[in-house]
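Submission sheet (multi-component)
Chains listed below:
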Amino acid sequence: MTSLLPVALLAVPLLGALLLLVAPTALRPWLRVYGLVVSGVALVLAVVMVATFDYGQAARPQFAVDREWISGLGLHFHLAVDGISLPLIALTALLTFLCFVYLSWGDARGPGQLLRARAGGARPRAMVFTLLVLEVGMIGTFLALDLLLFFVFFEIVLIPMYFLIAIWGGKGRRGASIKFILYTLLGSVVMLLGLLLVWARTGTLDIVALGQAHGAGMPRAVQILAFVAIGVGLAVKTPMWPLHTWLPDAHTEAPTVGSVLLAGVLLKMGTYGFARIAIPVLPEGAVAVAPWLGAFAVVGIVYGALACLAQRDLKRMIAYSSVGHMGFVLLGFATLTTVGVNGALFANVAHGLITGLLFFLAGAIKERYGTADMRVLGGGMLATLPHLGSVLTFAAIASLGVPGLAGFWGEMLSLFGAFQPGDGLPRGLFLTFMVIGGLGAVLTAAYFLVMLSRVTHGLPERAVPAAVARSGALGSRPPGPSDGGIGRRGLRDIQGYEWAAWVPLIVLILLFGLWPKLLLSLTTPAVQTLLGALS
Amino acid sequence: MIQQIDYFVIAVPLVLALVAGLVLMLDAFLPTGRRTQTGLGLVSLGGIVVALGFVVAQAVRGGGSRATFCVPESLATAAGAGSAAACSFVVDRFTLIFAGLVLVAAVVVVLMSMSELAGGGIPAGEWYFLVLCTLVGAVTLPASRDLIMLVVALELVSLPVFALTALKRYDGRSSEAAVKLFLVSVVSTAVMLFGVSLLYGIAGTVYLSRLASVFSGTVAAPGAATPEAHSSLLAADHGLPGVVTVGLVLVVAGFAFKIAAVPFHSWAADVYQGAPVPVAALLSVISKAAGFAGLILLLVAALPGQASTWTPIIAVVAALTMTVGNLLAMRQRSAVRLLAWSSVAQSGYILAPLAVAAQTGATAAGPSLTVGAAGAAGAAGAAGAAGAAGAAGAAGAAGAAGATGLVAAADAAGAVGASVAYLVIYAAMNLGAFAVVMLVSRTTARNELDDYRGLAFRSPVAAIALAFCLICLAGLPPGLAGLFAKVVVFREIIEGGAGWLAVVMAVNTVIGLYYYVVWTARLFTPVEAVPAGVRRAVPAVWVAVGIALVVALLFSVAPQLVLGVTSLSASG
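Outcome: structure written.
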C-alpha cells in the first residue's frame, strides 16, 4: 500500500493538470481554489510520506515502486524515497502549495495574484496548469531511481518553467526565457551523453544497483569522462560559475512564483543530481574531479558575492546570491566527506526556504513600487512598510548565515568538511578553499547588509510615482482591519495572502536553524551509504 | 521453365497497383464533381487499407522471410557465383516494417490530399493515381534484393512525385519546384546508375546476397583481374580494385540526393515549399523512408565487406547533414521551409547509427568472413557476437539466408534497428506537424511562422497537436517518443565508439531545440488582431491530425512497440 504513495504524489498534480485541460469551462468558477486544493492534496501526501517514513533506515530507499516500462531500453519506472530525497520532496510540495496560497488566497485579485488583470491577459487557467505540470516534474526528479527516468523528469521541468518566464515574465522575458531554455538544454544533452556512457559501460540504468556497484566495470578514465559530462549538465542547472549566466536574467524576468520555484526547487535538482548520481555512481571520477569542482565552487562563492555588491536590482542581487550559496553546496559535495555532503544537503534545503522567501519579498516589493531597483526604492522601508521591512531583514539575515537560522549550518558544515577533506583529496588545496569560502561568507554578509542599509534603513525620501501609488490603491478592495496598515504614502504593508504564504517559511527557517539535527539525522545515514565507496 | 510466383508475397504492391489503375479508370468514366473527387479519395484509401491488411497478414503469418522471383536451383549452381540464394523480392521483417510505415503514412497523406483537392484546381484522378504509384514503388523498394529492382523501385517512387508537385497548375512556385526536383532526381539517378553499373561490372551479379560475397572477398570477383594487380591508392578492401570504391561512392551519392543529405540537400526547401503540402509530407516521410530502405539494403546487405570504406563517408555525411539542416532551419520564416530543413537535419540523425553499425560489425565479423560461403559467413560472423543472429543463420533456408544475412551480416543489428526505429518515430511526429501545417495553410496563404501566433486561442486542439509534435521532434519530454528515439541513436553511437559523432549530435539537438521551441512558444503568444479564417478545413485533415497524434502519443507512452519490432527486424 505504502508504495502507492510516490505514484500518488505524481498522479495528483498530473491528473489535476489534465482535468484542467479536459473540463476547462466547468472548472472556471473554481479555478481560484482548484490549484490550492490540488497542490494541497499533494502536500498532504508529502506530509503523510514524511510521517510514515521509517527513520531507522533512512539510507534505504522506501515506498519503492519498480515496474518495467520499456524493455528495449531497459527503462524501469522505479520510484523510491530515502533520507536525501525526502526533505526535498517535502520542500517541493510545500513551496508549490505556498505559491498557490500566494496566488489565490483571499479573492485572488491582489497585486501579483492569480486573477489580477494584466496586459495580454492574466490567463489564470494556463498558470495553474503550468504550475501543476512543473510540480510533477520536480517531484518526479526527486523520486526517480532510474537514470533515464530521472532525465525525463529533469527535462519535463524545463517546458513549464520556460512558459512561466516567457508568458508571465517581465519586459525582457523573451530573451531571458530563450537563454534559460537553451542553456539548460545544452547542459541536459551533455548530461544525457554522460548517463548513456554509464549505461553503455555497465548495462544498467538502475541508480540503486549502480550505487552499490561503486563504479565497478568502469575504468577510471571512463568515470572521469562520465563525471565531467554529467557534472556539466548538473552544474548548468545548479548553477556553478561560470555556467550561471542564464540565472540572473531568468530570475529577474520571471514572475514571483516562477522565481520562487526556480530558486527554491529547480536549482536543487542540479545539486541533488550530484548526491544521487554523480558521486555514488562514479566514485573514482568524483575523486579525480573534486578539486576542480571545489575550485569552481569557491570562485562561485566569491564571484557571487562580488557581483551582488555591484547589483542595483533587488531580484538580480538575490539571483546572484544564489550563485554564491550554491557554491557552498558544491564545495560541500567536493569534499566527499560525510560532514561536507551533509552540509551541502542541509544548505540545499535551507537555501530553498530562505531564497524562496526572499524572492517572495522581492516580488512583493516590485508589485508595490513598480520597480526593484534599489536606488529608486530609496530607504526607510522599516518606517514606511514596517512589516515588509522586518521580514526582509529577517530573510536577509537568514541568508547571510547568522547562527540560529537555517542558513548557518549548511555553510558551516561545508567549510568544516573542507577542513578535513576525504581520502585522496589534497588537503592543502581544500584548506585554501575553506579560507576563500570563509572570505566569501564575509562578503555575503557585506552585500546583504549594504542592501538592508539601502532599502530598509535610512530616511524615506523617495516620492512615489503617482501612477504606481494609485494603481496600488485602486487595484485592490478597500483595506479592512485585517489587511494591515496602509503605509504612509499609499503603499500597503503585508497582506493576508502574503502572510499566509510566508509564515510557514519563516517558521521552518527558525526551526531548522535552532534544531538542525532534525534534518541532519535524516541525511546522515543516506550520505554514509552514498559515500560508501570512498571510505 | 516457368517462374513460380508467390502472389501472397507480392500482394501489397499488387493491390496498390490495381487500385491505381482502378482510380484512373473511375476518373475517366465517372462525371467530374465533388462527389467523384471524394469517392476517388475513398477508393484510394480503401486500397491502402487493404494493402495494409496484407502487410498485417504477412506479419501474422510470420515464420521468417518469404521470397519470390528467385533464381532456380539449377541455374544458381550453374552460375557458380557462390551458393547464396538469389531472390529479387523478399518479404521479411525489414520489408514489413517499411511497408507498414509507408502505408500508414500514406493514409495520413491521402486524408490531407482530400483537403488539398477540395480547394479545386487539381485533377483528383491523376493525383490519386500518382500517389498510389509512388506507394507501389515505396513498398517494393524495401523488398528488393537485386540492384535492378532497387533502381526501378526507387524511380517508381521518384517519378510520380515530380508530376504531383507540378499538378498545382498555374502556380509558378510549384512549377519551379517540380523542375528542380526533376533535375536533381535525374542527375542523382544517373549518378547512381553509373555506380550500380560499376559494381555490377566487378561482381558480375546484381543480387545483393551475391554482391555481399564478392565484396567481402569470399568469392573471387569475376570482373577483376588478379588481386595482386591492384595496389593503387584507391584499392578497395579484400584485394578488390579501386573502381569498387568509386562505384560505392557514386551509389551512396545517388541515395544521398534522395534523402536530401548534405552536400546534396539544396533542393529540399524550395521543393517542399513549392509543392502542395501533402506532397511535401509525402516527400519528407514516404520518399525519405524509401531512400533510407534502399541505402540500408545496399550498404548492409550488399557491401558489408567494404564497411571500412563507407562508414567514414556515412559518418561525415551524417554529421554535416544534421548540422547544415539545423543551421538553415534556424533562419527560416516559412513553416514548410522550416520543416524541410528540419527534416534534412533529422535525416542526419537517422544516418548516424549506420555510421557506427559497420564499425562494430567490421571488428566482429571481419576475421570470420573468410570462412564458408557468403550468406552463412555473414550470419556466422555475427553469431559470435549475437545469439539471435546465430539462430537466424541456423534457420537460413535457401530463400532466407540472403535476407537474414542482410542485417546479421555486419552485426548491424542494433544500428539498423536504431535507424529504423528513429525513422518510424520521426514519420509519426513529422506527419503530425505537416497535418497541422496543412490545416493552417487553409486559412493563411503564406503559411509563415508568424501566422501561428496565437493559434492556441483560435484552435486549441490544432495548437496542442502541433506543439506536441514539435516537442517530439525536438526530443524533449513530454514528447517522449522523440526523446527515446534520440536515446536509442545516442546509445548506438556511443557503444559503437564514435564519440565525436555523439557530441556533434548533442550540439545539433540543442540547435534543433531552439527553433522547435521558438515555434511552439509562438503558438501560445497572444495576439490582438485575430485574422479571420478564410476557408474551412475539410474534416479529413482533422482525421489525419488525429491519426498522427495518436500514433505519436502511443510511441511516447510505449516506445517498446517500435523498439521491440525494429530490434527484432535487426536480428532476423
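Remark: The CA atoms of residues 230 and 376 of chain A lie 42 Å apart.
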